[in-house]
Write a structure and sequence with these properties.
34% of the residues lie in helices and 29% in strands. The chain is an alpha+beta fold. Strands 6-7-8-9-10 form a 5-stranded antiparallel β-sheet. A hairpin with a 2-residue loop joins strand 4 and strand 5.
């Protein structure tokens, strides 16, 4: 079966000393749902770092593995590990062909690492990737501004809103959280 892997929604929110990252479970190939309950959020470095991935599954897992290697190389320095992965992604010919994005967060930082080797840190601690990412970010920003919900609750509700509009996002939502440095 030939087709393009599409979609997902990964969202990260920082609020009141908690960083939460969540993702839906849908894996789509072309117009077919291949799996409904994939786990797209991982804990790395003994649970100190959250990683969510979007894009082609094998590509995302390959990047996840390389990021984990960089974390072991620079323990306790997630920003340096993210920078080194972004540099490697930009310069390695095989990596440049990978179609995936990573959202990474630890107690102090949140980053988007893109398929072009870009490294972006959101100003407000809210980051979304995947086809439903922009929808979830908009919902999360509204919920942060107009509710008292916790970071994990905002992540869950924002992904639910994205799933109501994005055909590549479902309601099989996983949310992980870490305590933040304030």
């Amino acid at each position: 079966m030939k087709g393009k892997w599409q979609g997902t929604t990964i969202l990260t929110v920082r609020r009141n000393g908690i960083v939460a990252m969540g993702g839906d479970g849908q894996v789509t190939l072309g117009h077919t749902i291949m799996k409904a309950d994939a786990q797209k959020i991982r804990r790395l470095l003994d649970g100190q770092v959250l990683v969510g991935f979007a894009g082609a599954g094998a590509d995302a897992l390959a990047l996840l593995e390389r990021f984990e290697e960089r974390l072991r190389e620079f323990p306790g320095n997630m920003p340096r590990a993210a920078v080194e992965l972004a540099k490697q992604w930009r310069t390695d010919r095989a990596l440049r062909r990978l179609e995936a994005m990573l959202a990474v967060a630890d107690a102090r930082h949140t980053f988007l690492i893109t398929g072009t080797g870009e490294l972006v840190q959101p100003n407000d601690g809210i980051l979304g990737i995947g086809s439903g990412g922009p929808l979830a970010v908009a919902a999360a920003r509204a919920l942060v501004a107009h509710s008292q919900l916790s970071a994990p609750e905002i992540v869950r509700r924002a992904i639910e809103i994205a799933a109501s509009m994005d055909v590549y996002t479902n309601l099989e939502i996983t949310v992980e959280q870490l305590k933040c440095d304030l």
